[in-house]
Amino acid sequence: MHDNVFYGESEIPDCPVKGNGDYCIIHEKRAVNPPAAAGSAKAIHINSPSSLPMEKIKGHSSWGGRTIMRRNTFIGFQAKTREGQHNGIFGSNKYHADYTPMVELYDSTFINVELNALAHFDDPNPAWANLADCGEFPCTGPHNILYYL
């Protein structure tokens, strides 16, 4: 990803006022989720449609990975949304149990960004603890993420 501008929360609310549709789902917000890289998520030749949502590990096939971001600007990120949820620039993907490739950032600019809004990482899902994969402990993918600035 090169030459992008990411804005945090603006004066325009994410949620409509009550009585005006009230279709808002309050959730955490991030500018960047790391991409997945899996060795055996899907067959190398396409034989079925990708699962949705795409950010799930089996949503698309990938064989290793590298993420490079150049000359990106991040503006106006606070640590919490106006609804009180985590808000930030970098995060973890809640569907990544194992491996997340390093994200490399070059020539990044941060304007009006709170320190606690820089990154928020989710804890491993306890359901990931299974003998066939990670043993009695949940896989620690969310704790093994590296953003290189």
Descriptive key words:
three-stranded parallel β-sheet; mainly beta; 149 residues; globular; 0% helix
Written overview of the protein:
This protein is mainly beta and 149 residues long. The chain has one domain (1-10, 22-149). Helix content is 0%, strand content 23%. The protein has strands at residues 5-7, 29-32, 67-70, 73-77, 87-91, 103-106, 109-113, 119-120, 147-148. The strands form three sheets. The chain has a three-stranded parallel sheet with strand order 1-4-7, with no helix packed on it.
Per-chain topology:
Layout: E1 5-7, E2 29-32, E3 67-70, E4 73-77, E5 87-91, E6 103-106, E7 109-113, E8 119-120, E9 147-148
Parallel strand pairs: 1-4, 2-5, 3-6, 4-7, 5-8, 6-9
Please sum up the structure shown.
By secondary structure, the protein is mostly beta strands. The chain has no helices and 9 strands. The protein has one domain.
Q: Could you state the oligomeric state of the chains shown?
A: single chain
- Helix count from the secondary structure assignment: 0
Helix content: under 10%
Instruction: Give the beta-strand count.
Output: 9
Order of helices and strands: EEEEEEEEE
Biggest sheet, spatial arrangement of strands = 1-4-7
Return the structural class: mainly beta
Quick one: overall form? globular
Report the C-alpha radius of gyration, rounded: 17 Å
Return the domain count. 1
Largest sheet report: 3 strands, parallel
Uncertain runs: none
